[in-house]
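Pasting as-is:
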Amino acid sequence: LKRRSRDPPVPTQFQSRSRPTMPETMEITAAAKSGDGTVVNVGIKMEGSFQCPDCRQKFDTEKAKQLHWKFIHDPNRHQED
């Protein structure tokens, strides 16, 4: 790795000459997929059976819906700014 004298030193963990490569194919489980191909539904799970009462997100299980609500919508949950 070449660097100019005025550049800060590069940490050892970043001095590798080879960069990691992405796999040629990537498997994505059905549970991780979202949307229906439209801009309106980007990031919204469409096939879930359990609808969040406060947004358009759907979940495969009641427990997943409850965890989502707890961490996203619960007004009593402590939030740091």
